[in-house]
Amino acid sequence: MSAAEEVVAEGHEAVEAVPKRAMTLSTGTSLLVLAVLLIVPAFVKNFIIFQMTMLLIYGLAVLALNILTGGSGQFSLGQSAFYAVGAYTSAVLMEYFNVNYALTIPVSATVCFGFGYLFGKPALRLSGVYLALATFALATAMPQLLKLNFLEHWTGGVQGLVVTKPDAPFGLPMSQDVWLYYFTLVVTLAIYIFSVNLLRSRSGRAFMAIRDNEIAASSMGVNVALYKTLAFGVSAGITGVAGSLGAIAVQFVAPDSYTITLAISLFLGMVVGGVGWLPGSFVGAAFIIFVPNMAESISKGLSGAVFGVLLFLVIYLVPHGARQIAILGQQFAGKLRKN
Amino acid sequence: MELFTNQVLAGIATGAIYACMALAVVMIYQAIDHLNFAQGEMAMFATFVSWQLMQWGVPYWGAFVITLVFAFVGGVAIERILFKPLAKAPVLTNVAGFIALFAIINSSAGLIWDFTIKQYPTPFGSSPFLGSQLISTHQAGMIGVTVLLLIGLYFFFQYTRIGLAMRAAASVPESARLVGINTSWMIALGWGMASAIGAIAGMLIAPVVFLEPNMMGGVLIYGFAAAVLGGLTSPFGAVVGGFLMGIFENLAGTYIPGVGNELKLPIALALIISVLVVKPAGLFGRHIVKRV
């Protein structure tokens, strides 16, 4: 409101810095989690397997956002747009060109990487709330872009497209759901390992330098523009893979499945899981899949309100999300061992 | 030519609403440096309250005033209870807080008044204004109320002690504290006023878009676009941006072929992104310089 031309923005930090080592789980815990994930399908019903598949898929999408925000310190409320592009790429390739479902995934990853990289270009000039706003607008507009007339031939317009669920190959004695679960698990694992290594690499260090202090990073020779757009591209690419897997698992794509609500869910998943803590992505995914159901069982009409209240509780009580709980757990275990 | 004038006038009328929303967004942005994603829902809830009052037999203007007081108190309460503790938290946590607030208000309104579309009365009637076919009395009323509001706000900020204190608290909080201004309460006051301005926008637009819990979604996006266009740091710019957005929306819908209702939001998106890319500070905003 003052007429001063130049104002110093002291500003809030976008995200809190997370040390590099604190970003992952220890080897022992990781192997334990993996073993559980491998064995579980033998004991549960198909519907639960489907839900676990969705958990892995949303976990991937949250992980992608985590690389963008926790890694390079940029915001996105528009991940649903990249998710939608991935889903549609797979669906169109599978239904119109009869491409094998597994081959559509690298294609989606590439397409979304390009899309994210290009979107990252104008977003370069934005930070904090401005970036949140631009991506928010992208997510809001996406369903309407997908419904456009001249795309209708490919996207099926409002009706969407039906995707065929793949059978287990080589005559493996598994139901479609179980096969898809293992397929998703393998893809998730590959991407998780890729992400961990990415953040430990030279590029990862560049991301984190930008996150912690952009000016300092650039004065030390980090190409800020390149790494910021790269982070957007990688994040979009992984989200695209999640979108593809999601389309195959749900067997259906339609513009209205990819609204701003999805983008917000993914964002919340990241906050709940702990920003910058990669394993937390899957905890966050569990939160966004199961808590709305729980909220609905507490009160049908008020599910949104219950969800909101739970979210406020998380923000106030454990602002670092699942990471904080994991650290507390570790300290507690350490104390027990000493006694 | 008549079509053109007609569309421009209609654009100014909807622009008045966008101007109010943008102003509400900018006021909170000035106070706490965050965009309130729940602004539209707060306005929607206030509009429902006024509707309920009218159902109970309160006359329109009575309900209008009671709702403004309610919205003001509600805005202050939300700041005091929910967002004051988050003042030092990272941007991310605040965005999550706004989203939670959005979910809570939207779902409570849906539970109390359910999701069916309701008629909302207008005090101005909908006959042609001054006998001309160009603009209806309700549209003229929308413009009139907004202009009155803007003049009132101008005098408040320019010529009252408390307005001056609020400006001081927003532009240089440290110095403001040193001269004895309670900046924390100035922020709460800003929230209350923003909430009341949003309520006015809600009550004016409700006869046009009809009353339902999701009625403010599109309006809020246009409000954001208007605020970005005018500059997030300039209340005056937000108002100008609001009117420009209204006119732009109507003209684009009339003259660009293929731009119907379904392209409304993508247009706002394109505008937000192009303004942010070409002139991030907006038309009237201050240029932000970072200190190393």
From TrEMBL, chain B:
GO biological process terms on file: amino acid transport
Lineage: Bacteria, Pseudomonadati, Pseudomonadota, Alphaproteobacteria, Hyphomicrobiales
Pfam families given in the database record: BPD_transp_2 (PF02653)
Transmembrane region(s): 6-28, 60-83, 95-115, 135-157, 185-209, 221-244, 265-289
Keywords: Amino-acid transport, Cell membrane, Membrane, Transmembrane, Transmembrane helix, Transport
Keyword Cell division in annotation: no
Compartments where located: Cell membrane
Single GO molecular function: transmembrane transporter activity
Family statement: Belongs to the binding-protein-dependent transport system permease family. LivHM subfamily.
Protein name: Branched-chain amino acid ABC transporter permease
GO cellular component term, pick one: plasma membrane
Membrane topology: Multi-pass membrane protein
InterPro entries xref list: ABC_transp_permease (IPR001851), BCAA_transport_permease (IPR052157)
Organism listed in the record: Bradyrhizobium amphicarpaeae
